[in-house]
Design brief:
By secondary structure, this protein is of the alpha+beta class. The protein is 17% helix and 32% strand. The chain has helices at residues 161-171, 178-183, 198-206, 208-211, 300-328; strands spanning 6-9, 25-28, 32-38, 43-49, 56-57, 66-69, 77-86, 90-96, 100-105, 116-117, 120-125, 131-134, 140-143, 218-220, 223-225, 227-235, 238-243, 254-256, 261-263, 267-269, 278-283, 289-292. Strands 2, 4, 5, 7, 8 and 9 form a six-stranded mixed sheet that branches. The protein has a four-stranded antiparallel sheet with strand order 10-11-12-20. Strands 6-3-21 form a three-stranded mixed sheet, with no helix packed on it. The longest helix has 29 residues, at 300-328.
Length: 339
């Protein structure tokens, strides 16, 4: 009779290097945090750890989203995951989401390059708690700089994209344009985005690996793509833009203002700035599944024992047959004189 056994098969996706995202969230002690989970087919229980090895349940944390305030950690870090239970799928054990890592800081001076902080990835730091961040995706792929026939002298800074953007918006009525895409942007709880100036865009390109998702420079049907606008005006009809190259330092030329190019907005933060809720999302990569086992497992030891017994008997019979032949000359073991 065939016996059926049900076993739980699941894979817990965990990596020290890559959590739910490939970056670390930085948040101040006492600031609001929001945890979300996708793909949870069951009851949620949020868990936390200070080392990603020893986990404990967070009391009352059973919803998605779950919002709470950041608490200091002895290691400086806190890890979070969702434990999922569903007795219909599995009666005996929970399964888990991916893991997200938070760096708990006392001030913005503790933020590091590559951290997710106040709306994007930190790519510029001044060492005293101020910096510049960029989102992980472009905000436009076909915007012009705008106002081809207008020169804006107050938008010629190579270091202050925020001032340039404000000057462009005030002096160029054409819409939408690269500067207005950033000026009108609301993203990750922030509204003070701007088109980066020449040097800000150049540094962003040089550190593009920690921000990610830039369009590489290539020629598509005779049209070069991978071009990004800077907010720095150059002259009548020309403004600065950048071609992000994959293998060497970017090249920053000027271009006609009516050219179509990509836009990656940025925003600055200060040590005294106000932070919105820092939100992160983990996901359940694999759901448990039941599989059937169509036969009982067999111990190799018992099977091998039976084979050895059989071989022993066979050898014994062969030896007995050989002894009879030596004594009688009859391979079949017949007695002398028998027909």
């Amino acid at each position: 009779m065939r016996s059926i056994y049900f076993i739980l098969v699941f894979i817990l996706v965990f990596s020290v290097k890559i959590y739910s995202q490939s970056f670390v969230y930085a948040v101040h002690v006492g600031n609001a945090m929001e945890l979300n989970v996708t793909g949870a087919n069951g009851t949620i229980q949020w868990q936390q750890s200070t080392d990603s090895l020893s986990w404990s349940n967070i009391s009352g944390a059973t919803t998605s989203p779950y919002t709470f305030n950041a608490v200091a950690s002895p290691s400086g870090n806190r890890f979070f995951r969702a434990a999922i239970t569903n007795t219909i799928i599995c009666q005996n054990a929970p399964w888990y989401s991916t893991v997200v890592k938070y760096r708990i800081v006392s001030s913005s001076a503790g933020v590091q390059l590559g951290d997710w902080y106040r709306g994007g990835i930190v790519y510029s730091l001044d060492g005293i708690g101020n910096g510049v961040i960029a989102p992980t995706l472009d905000q436009s792929n076909n915007s012009s700089w705008g106002c081809q026939s207008i020169h804006i002298p107050t938008a010629m800074s190579t270091t202050d994209g925020n001032a340039n953007t404000n000057a462009i918006i005030a002096n160029c009525t054409e819409r939408p344009i690269a500067a207005s895409v950033c000026y009108d942007l609301t993203l990750n709880g922030y509204t003070d985005w701007y088109l980066p100036a020449f040097n800000q865009l150049l540094l962003l390109s040089q550190r593009r690996a920690i921000v990610g998702n830039f369009v590489p420079a290539q020629n598509a049907g005779g049209v070069t793509i991978g071009e990004y606008w800077a907010s720095t005006d150059n002259d009548f009809g020309y403004a600065d833009f950048l071609i992000v190259e994959q293998d060497y330092q970017p090249w920053v030329p000027t271009a006609y203002k009516d050219m179509q190019a990509n836009v990656r907005c940025v925003r600055s933060y200060t040590s005294s700035g106000i932070a919105t809720t820092t939100s992160s999302t983990v996901y359940v990569a694999f759901q448990p599944e039941t599989v059937s086992m169509i036969s009982q497992p067999i111990l190799i030891r018992d099977k091998l024992s039976n084979i050895l017994i059989y071989l022993h008997r066979l050898i014994f019979l062969q030896e007995k047959q050989s002894l009879i032949y030596l004594l009688t000359g009859d391979v079949k073991g017949k007695q002398p004189g028998q027909g």
